Amino acid sequence: MRKIIWGFIAFFWTGNLFAYNYSEHKDIGDVAFSRLLADVSNQRNTALFFQFLNIQEDEEAVWYFTDLSVKGGQQISYGVLNGLSGDHCSNPLLLEKQLRLKNSVMQQILLLHNQYMDMGYTSAPDGKLTHTDFAYALQAAVNLGHFYEYDKTFQQQLRHFNKEFIRQCQNPSLVRSIFKELNGTNAINMYVSLHAVAIDLAEQSGRLAKTNPEEAKVLLFYAFLFNGFADHFLEDCFAAGHLVVRRTSFASITNNKALHDFYNDEGCTVVNREADIWRAYGDKAFNHTHDAWEKDTSLLAIKHQEYTDEADRIIKAVHLSLSDVWNAFEQSYSNENHIPFYNLIPDDKKLQPDFLIAATPALKLVPIPFNSDLNTLFPDSITITDSMQKAGQTPYYRNFVRSRIANSFIIGFNGPAFHGRYYEGVDFRVNFGNPVSIYTHNERGGKRGTVDYWMGYTLAYSLGDIKAYKDDTFSPYFAQQVKAGLRNNLDIWVGEKRFLGLSNYTEAGVQFVDGATEFVFTPSIGVQFGSLLNINYYNLPTWLRIPLEYIVPLKLKYGVVLSSHSPTAYFNGLDIDIVF
Questions:
Q1: Is 427 helix (H, G, I), strand (E, B) or coil?
Q2: Which of 91, 192, 283, 395 is spaced 20 to 30 A from 529 at the CA atom?
Q3: β-strands 569-579, 556-563: how paired?
Q4: Helices 22-40 & 213-236, crossing angle to 10 degrees?
Q5: Would you say 172 and 140 are in contact if contact means Cβ atoms under 8 Å apart?
Q6: Around Cβ 136, how many Cβ atoms within 10 Å?
Q7: Nearest to 64 by CA among 43, 86, 37
């Protein structure tokens, strides 16, 4: 049964659905943590802070937690906590338990990751990880908390925030159920909620440090454990593929994986509350320059930074997050009149989103969720430019891309080819996978004058009658076909919004006629005219798109049925995309 379940998951979610690979999360966390320690090294109460955290520096200048780095196990740094949280473990207390056991599944996963990182990979292969921990595949398939909620504003992302979770997360008996609820929300809410827990724990630690240092030390440890979990989701906020998918159970089957992978590779333009505009990417692209040198006109202009601007922005966000925890500890320790962050959060849920956005420094750096009202997110001193407005909108071609790469279910209607024998019937087809795609832009970043190519796989069942055009002497007979093959799409852009779409199915299988079984080959070619008139079905709501595709055929095709025993038959047809 386990193999059957994994096979089903793998069919739709091949590869991971996480934002960055393990080593990328680890690098971000470790660098940010080192920057924090450099910041606080000369500040008051630093010695106490280091003593409570019980951290040591290894030969590669990476700081690790000695309490979690058990003898015979792997060294546990803040970056390790970032990399494992959410992707490999569902809550911080379970992660702690696993890390404290040298023979645990989590220690085995760490060993796997380290072995592949030593060979130059960004993580261990998903297949090996799943073989070690089956829950890894399930986490990728069902955890919605790594993603923005598509088409929801910045404030709406925080409508799930529950102030009481801050204290309830400090009750171990409630942690599992709380995280189950949090995992159904989104990356921004996950980060803010767990970061608030970390701040609250750090404040408690600071208040207790003088009177009960042993309890204070435990609370500060858990503050960083929870913040390590929170920062994983903060890092996820910067991945392009996590900004554009509609995370529902149904969309997980149709288009999440495809859109996630496409935009992580292709990137998309975003803007943050610092008014920075940049092109965000995703996993395996952290700290990549994306051949930026090709745009330079002089060798002297080529610059090689330790971290690209995009990578450094993510590290800065995590650095800010860690600084919040340090400040919470230090201020509550030094100032008896310090007001806890928990007390500052409004009880009125309508006021909470705007308060949390303003009170959480790292949220100034994350991409603003598409279609947010920028006027509610910037002070009057910042002018909202056209470029910022454009970057804040959903990528214009997102739905077009979805129509090309999503797993889809299509019904086709076939009829007379106006000569000879023809196949009249219905096709039920599933398109899936996207092993090849070529998607380009012109020099202005648009589509005019470009050509796109897409290839995927098909499974189809067809049933109908073989008839003869204007031949009353011919006796029609019933035929069924089960076939599989390849689909190809070629899109020729004649404008920024108009293109001529050409398509092809190359399928083969078996045909059943009068109890006999024979080989069948059914190649077809198609054309998408509607897009030339800017009637782009993929932008229409389902209730309008399906009848329109039938009434005004938007996707036409012509094909032939070649079989090993039956005469050749032809067909004209139209396809209707039911879901994609």
A1: strand
A2: 395
A3: antiparallel
A4: 130
A5: no
A6: 21
A7: 37
> What's the DSSP call for residue 487?
E
Q: Dihedral angle at the C-alpha atoms of 207, 210, 215, 218, nearest 10 degrees?
A: 80
Where along the chain do its domains lie?
397-579
User: Whose CA is closest to 555, among 404, 450, 335?
Assistant: 404
pLDDT number for residue 500: 94
User: What's the CA gap between 220 and 177, in Å, rounded?
Assistant: 23
Gap between the Cα atoms of 505 and 527, Å rounded: 12
Element (H, E) at 197: helix 187-208
pLDDT tens-digit map of 4-30: 444 444 444 444 555 578 999 999 999
Closest C-alpha among 310, 291, 140, 160 to residue 238: 310
Cα separation, 10 vs 4, whole angstroms: 10
Cα dist. 547→76, 234, 241, 552 in Å? 57, 42, 31, 8
Beta partners for residue 557, in sequence order: 526, 573
Residue whose structure tokens are 């000879």: 420
CA triple 194-199-202, angle to 5 deg: 125
Q: How far apart are alpha carbons 196 and 532 in whole angstroms?
A: 51
Instruction: Decide if 39 contacts 207 (C-beta within 8 A).
Output: no
Specify the CATH architecture of the domain 397-579.
Beta Barrel (2.40)
All residues at 6 or more sequence positions from 26 whose CB lies less than 8 Å from its CB, including other chains: 77, 79, 80, 82, 83
Note the pTM of the prediction, 2 decimals: 0.90
SS3 115: helix
Whole-angstrom distance, CA of residue 160 vs CA of residue 386? 31
SS3 content of the chain, % helix, strand, coil (to 5): 45, 20, 35
Predicted confidence (pLDDT) at residue 142 exceeds the cutoff of 70: no
End-to-end CA distance of the chain: 28
Confidence (pLDDT) at 463: 96
Q: What count of other Cβ atoms lies within 10 Å of the Cβ of residue 358?
A: 13
- Give, in order, the Cα–Cα distances in Å from 88 to each of 10, 103, 143, 225: 17, 16, 11, 15
> Which residues, in sequence order, are CB contacts of 425 under 8 Å at separation 6+?
414, 462, 463, 464, 465, 479
| Helices 213-236, 309-334: inter-axial angle, 10-degree rounding | 160
Count Cβ atoms below 10 Å from residue 344 Cβ, excluding itself.
Answer: 9
Cα separation, 277 vs 266, in Å, equals 16
Q: Report the alpha-carbon distance of residue 211 to residue 507 in Å, rounded.
A: 76
